[in-house]
Structure formats: C-alpha cells, structure tokens
Amino acid sequence: MVPPADIDHLSHAELKSLVVKQFEVIAELRQIIAGLRDEIARLKGGPRRPNIKPSGMEKATEPKSVTPAGKGKRGSTKMKLTIHEDKIITISAPAGSRFKGYTGYLVQDLVVRANVVNFRCERWLTPDGSLLTAPLPDGVQGHFGPELRRFVLAQYHQGQVTVLRLVTALQAVGIIISKRQVVRLLIDGQDRFLDEAQDVLRAGLSNAAWITVDDTGARHKATNGFCTQIGNAHFAWFGTTHSKTRANFLGLLRAGYSNYVINTDALAYMRHRQLADHVIERLVNHEDKAFADKDAFCSHLNRLGIPNLKVNPDPVEIATEGALWGSIKAHGLLPSTVIVSDDAGQFNVGLHGLCWIHAERLVHKLDTFTDEHRLAQRKIRGLIWRFYRDLKAYRLAPCQRRKLALTARFDRIFTRQTGFVTLDRLLKRLHANKAELLMVLDRPEIPLHTNGTENDLRCQVTKRKVSGGTRSDVGRECRDAFLGLAKTCAKLGILFWDYLGARLGIPGLAVPNLAETVKHRCASG
C-alpha cells in the first residue's frame, strides 16, 4: 500500500477511507502471521490456536421436521433382551399367607473373569513313522484365545484405551500378560484385517458415485505426518504418510497398487496440468508404457532426460502425477467418481467438487472494522445461506429450469461489489471456483459438504491425543486399518464387536465380507 504524497491536506472522508484500508491490510497480515504461527507450532509439536466456531449454516438450512405422533419413544427394553438365567428370590412370609406368584425384575450384568483352558491335543504315531498332532482351535494366537484378542482389539481401536491401561485391566481380572504381549496381539498376524481394509477401499473407489476426503496431523516414528481419510456414506479408509502433496494423494487413490502407467488418461492429465508438449512427446514415443514401481518409473524418466529439462511446470512432478492417475484409471478406480474436498490443492484431481461449509466459513471468519463492513458481511452471508438452502432442495428434485436459475443466481451473489475490499476479493476468489461449487447441479447425488469426513477423522485425532504416534510401519498400518474397519462397520450397521468375533473364529458369528457389502451399497446408491 503506497502512502499518499501529502497526508496533511486529505479530507476527513479520505482519512477515514485510508484508515479503513490500513485496518484491512493489518487484518490480512494478522491472518498470515497466525498461519505462520500455526505452522511453527505444528512443526514443534505444540498446541495450535483454537478454531473459530462454525457458522451454523448447515443446521440452520435444514427443514423443520414434524415428528409423527407416537414416534420417538425408545420402546420396551424387555423385548430386546435375551434372558440367560432365572433366579428365584424367596422371602419369609407370616403364617396364613397365600402364594401369589412372582414379580419379574430384569437386571443386566456383566461377567468379566479369566478363563484358562488347558488344550490337550491328541498325538498319533502314523504307520509311516510321522507324528500327527491335533491343531489348536481357530483364533488362538500364542497362548491367548480369540475372546481375549477380540477384547484387546475392540478396547484399543474402538474404545481408545492405551496399551498400559489395557495391561492393567487384564491383569486386574487375572490374566497374566505383559505390555509386549499386548502389543503383539495388536499388530502380529493381522494380515487378514489389513487385506480386508484395502479391499474395502478398492470396492469404494470402484463403485462409489462420490467420495469425500480430508487429512489431519499424525505422528509416526517421532516425526510429524498426515493421515488422509477417504470415504462416503458406506465406507471409511485411513492412510498415514509423511507428506500431503498431490502425488501422495494420487498414490493413496491407487488403493495398494504400486505400478505407474502411461495411457490416454495419464496423457490427458499431463496436458490439463500444462506439461510442455515436447516432454509429453518423449513419453508417447517411447515403447515402455507400464512400470512396476516408483524406482522403475524414475529410471525411465532419467533415461529420457526429463529431470534435466528446465521447463515450467516441473516435468518430473507432472509426469509422475500423470502416471499415477493413469494407474488409477487402469485398475478401474474412480470411473466417474466425484471427489469432494475443502479446497486443499492436493485433492484437486479428476471430477472435483468443493465443500460449501468451508467456502462460507471464509466469509464468516473475515475481520470487520466498520458498521458498513459488518452490514456487507451479514448481507452476503444471508444470501449464501439462502442459496445453500435452495441447493439442498435442488438435490431432492433436480430439473433443468432450476439449474439455470441457480447458476445465474450464483453469478449475481459472487460478482457483487460491496465496497468492503477484502470481502470483494474473497467473493471473486469463490466465483473462480464456480464449476466445483456448482458440481452438485450436474451430480445432485453428491453431498454439499465434507462433514462426514471430518466426523470420521475425529477417531484419528482422539487416537493421536490418547496414544501419541506409532513406532513401526506395521503398527501404523494396523492402526489405520482397524479404525477404518470400525468406521465402515458403523456405516453398514454392523457391530464392530461381532465383526471381530467372526473374523477371529468365535463360533456362532457370521459377518459378510465388508468389501462385498460396500460394493453392493455403493452400486445401489
């Protein structure tokens, strides 16, 4: 901001305008400084500043529901219970009394005790001289049975209980176990769960009409990293990595596949990201189009001399992202799936929609200094709230006429000139995101916000606060997989306790494969 040449001869109105502009510049600088402080605090592992309270747009725009008469009552508890034991309570009655039957009173209780089983496995000497021993039942790991393993997994992942408290609780009921043994129960021999979690992600990305994504901080091997959530109404998946670049996100979207592919989708991605034509020609003209892993692809780029090129954008970065996108498409993932995010740059790939809650929050968080500023802010927020309410109504009954009307109305709202410079600049920025904010007009099945993802990430945040970080790669994979499986079970209406029991071989429990269930749910909408 350039100061006026002669400030002494400015009028009162000009001085007031100058002061207001200075306040706006100061507010922007404060936001930049606050962001830098947050980044420094994150790098140091310290606390960050508290978030501003949500504006309440989502709740305020919900239609008022009328509860039908008689609905809302929880019903009889007795009908939901299975009686395991009958006990008769006697009383000494005076002489001459007549017996009038019983008064029933249901009491729910819990039996927690150690149960030590000595398995005597038969041994037979066969005619050929070999020794045949009867195998232990399914679910036994080391010297611990499936019920104890289920308790440990459920308490640690769903109950957010620390390892030390688990050890204390188990020892209190008579289980002789150490911290190391509990850790082994949490991470050893969990390949079946890890595979199912990966299959859930593949089923979701192959069949879902939309997904929402976000990330949060996570520590691994005493280093700050990032945990990314991918999911929708039917599944949730978590992946912790060391970075939050676009290439990292594309790598997660491969759902466990490690290859890189140069195909039409990859080339279209590179052209969209404005990679130089002569770089694309080098990739097209070479006969190698598929690569097993990152090392093989990097070696290919080196042979083509791409890392030595001085062009903008970075050819290695864009070529790598394109080959990752080609791999995603080659495996049939994200066929026409819309990715809804909070406008973080790394998530802007493929068909992309933006969260309206995050967009409105930018207006809500603006610093105002005059009554005119506050009035302009309230007016714009009111327009956005009413527009958001009508978008929700459009999702229920989409039609071409309403689509055109909402598109024109979006332009009128976000091209306004309010006189509040910072607000006008923000409206211009939001208008530039028109295609992504109005993705719902073409795809009314997608959500208008990422609240589901933020809700899913709370369990990761709680785990980080309660247990800190992970120390081994398998520990990190197990933490992410089990938290994702627990969230997926909740979305599918499956008790996580029953799911663990079924997978650990406890008799009488049958839970279908989660990936197959997610596939059918996503396919049916």
Count of alpha/pi helices = 21
Give the quaternary arrangement of the chains: single chain
Distance between the termini: 53 Å
Please give the radius of gyration in angstroms: 30 Å
C-alpha geometry? globular
Question: What secondary-structure arrangement, pairings included, does this model have?
Answer:
Layout: H1 12-44, H2 57-60, E1 123-125, E2 131-133, H3 146-158, H4 163-172, H5 179-187, H6 191-207, E3 210-220, E4 223-231, E5 236-241, H7 246-253, E6 260-261, H8 264-272, H9 277-285, E7 290-291, H10 294-304, H11 315-330, E8 338-341, E9 351-354, H12 356-364, H13 371-396, H14 400-414, H15 421-432, H16 434-437, H17 439-442, H18 451-467, H19 473-492, H20 496-503, H21 514-524
Parallel strand pairs: 3-8, 8-9
Antiparallel strand pairs: 1-2, 3-4, 4-5, 6-7
Notes on the protein architecture:
With 525 residues, this protein is α/β, with parallel strands linked by helices. Helices cover 50% and strands 8% of the residues. Strand 1 and strand 2 form a beta hairpin. The longest helix has 33 residues. The radius of gyration is 30 Å and the shape is globular. It starts with 11 loop residues before the first helix and ends with a helix. The model has no long low-confidence stretch (mean pLDDT 91).
Quick gist of this model?
With about 525 residues, the chain is an alpha/beta fold. The chain contains 21 helices and 9 strands. Among the domains are: about 10-45; about 190-345 and about 470-525, no CATH class; about 355-440, no CATH class.
